[in-house]
Amino acid sequence: MSKQQARFEPYDFNGGTCVAIAGADYCVVAADTRMSTGYNILTRDYSKINKLADKCLMASSGFQADVRALQKVLGAKHLIYQHQHNKQMSCPAMARLLSNTLYYKRFFPYYTFNVLVGFDEEGKGCVYTYDAVGSYEKVGYSAQGSGAKLIMPVLDNQLKSPSPLLLPALDAVTPLTEAEAIDVVKDVFASATERDIYTGDKLEIVIVNADGIRREYAELRKRLIH
């Protein structure tokens, strides 16, 4: 008879994939709506994209209880900022706030993997990508979650400079138009859904541009596990 051990296991991994692309005058962020644990699908209609400010959004994968806790903390801190300064945070300021919040919890971290999108000081689209303890980078595109290892090679191939040694350094925006970026997002998710059981059901796409925020939806592969 095997000996049972009591273990402290506070985390779960609920799967899902997030992708973000920044252009000269827009940002596109997308995520699937499946939430799973192990081989069980908990829900097929769960949004992983959260609005932090008028033109600043965060998409998160990982442990969704920690994601919700992180969203509440950021919302409270942003509300305090608005009361003190009479304005909303800029996207770069929100990026730093998210980094500080994650780093503060580094010894018992939020098990979340985030991408933040919005506009920088010059009005260009920007994407910030994070690890679980707050290290972040401003990039032109990023993917997080269970399907990220399948999607990032495709994005690198389609969007990155042919040579990583090319000088001067490229701007942190992609050369795609908004419509082209949306098509790329749909294609990479369709591919990842075929190979990752934690990604699927429906694709939520949020476009941020000068006109505001627009949402689109597309169907993805469904699996008959419950």
Describe this structure in words.
- The protein is of the alpha+beta class.
- It has a single domain (17-219), classed as Aminohydrolase, N-terminal nucleophile (Ntn) domain (Glutamine Phosphoribosylpyrophosphate, subunit 1, domain 1), CATH 3.60.20.10.
- Helix content is 29%, strand content 31%.
- It contains four helices and twelve strands.
- It has helices at 64-85, 91-104, 148-159, 178-195, and strands at residues 17-22, 26-32, 35-37, 40-43, 49-53, 56-62, 112-119, 125-130, 136-139, 141-145, 202-209, 212-219.
- It has a five-stranded antiparallel sheet with strand order 10-1-2-11-12, with helices on one face. The chain has a five-stranded antiparallel sheet with strand order 5-6-7-8-9, with helices on one face. Strands 3-4 form a two-stranded antiparallel ribbon.
- Helix 3 (148-159) runs antiparallel to helix 4.
- The two termini are 32 Å apart.
- The relative contact order is 0.22.
- The mean pLDDT is 91.
